[in-house]
Specification:
There is one protein chain. 0% of the residues lie in helices and 53% in strands. The chain is mainly beta and 248 residues long. The strands form 4 sheets. It has a 9-stranded mixed beta sheet, with no helix packed on it. A 7-stranded parallel beta sheet has the order 7-10-13-16-19-22-25, with no helix packed on it.
Length: 248
């Protein structure tokens, strides 16, 4: 990035000018740099869902370690190539996904993902904290996922394989507008789900059931040592014939 120096008197100041932060300066001049509070520039991902060309705050960023505010975007972080998320907070109410991994290898560890979905949340069948799709692979570990509209963590589609361990996944409690699922492995995906704390995924309606851990038409799931609290049903295992659950 090129820098611009502007003559000024000896002052210590910080201001915001058209998304640019003016850093502390001296008689020699001051240095312009990008502002931390500049508006998010949502980027196209090339991925379409519900007839919408979804945008993201970050697209194929490689390693993500800083917090991401995805206000105004459909996705917080989009991966179509290998990468990682470590210790970052993803929020800002992206309405489709906090993190979406599409056919790539990505590890997520120590992350916090919340505020995913419409504001306020409603019955639209989107709003997923972390999703791996279309042959994506990787691990999700030691992370916290909460305040999602539809599902906390999802692995779906043939060829997708994910290890989900040591995470805390918290739904909204008994709600009438949508049937949430904490963790979902579905539609030909495989995975291991171990040592997670899954809570408060409950639906007050009668048409479908909300699940702590949903295995729907999966191609093989190993689950052990998970704890459940306040879920309408802790484990839902549904084969190719379908079932009385709501899949996201």
């Amino acid at each position: 990035m090129s820098c611009t120096r502007i003559a000024t008197s000896r002052v210590q100041l910080r201001a915001s000018l058209a998304g640019v932060a003016v850093l502390a300066g001296s008689a020699a001049g001051i240095l312009l740099a990008p502002s931390a509070d500049a508006a998010v520039a949502c980027q196209p991902t090339g991925y379409t869902q519900d007839g919408i060309d979804l945008t993201a705050a970050l697209v194929n960023p490689g390693a993500v370690t800083a917090d991401v505010d995805a206000a105004g975007c459909n996705i917080g972080v989009f991966f179509g190539s290998a990468g990682s998320v470590t210790g970052a907070h993803i929020n800002g109410a992206p309405n489709y996904y906090g993190i979406l991994v599409l056919g790539a290898s990505v590890n997520v560890s120590g992350a916090t993902v919340n505020g995913i979905g419409e504001a306020p949340h409603n019955g639209a069948q989107h709003g997923v904290g972390i999703a791996y799709r279309e042959g994506a692979t990787g691990t999700i570990s030691g992370s916290s996922v909460s305040d999602y509209q539809k599902n906390g963590i999802v692995a779906r589609d043939a060829g997708t394989s994910v290890s989900v361990s040591g995470n805390t996944v918290s739904g909204a409690g008994p709600v009438g507008y949508i049937a949430q699922n904490g963790i979902q492995i579905s539609y030909g995906a495989t995975g291991s789900v171990t040592g997670n704390s899954i809570s408060d995924n409950a639906y007050t309606g009668t048409s479908v059931t909300a699940c702590g851990l949903l295995m729907f038409q999966a191609d093989g799931v190993k689950q052990s040592k998970n704890s459940f609290s306040g879920d309408q049903k802790n484990l839902c295992s549904v084969g190719r014939g379908g079932g009385n659950v709501s899949v996201g």
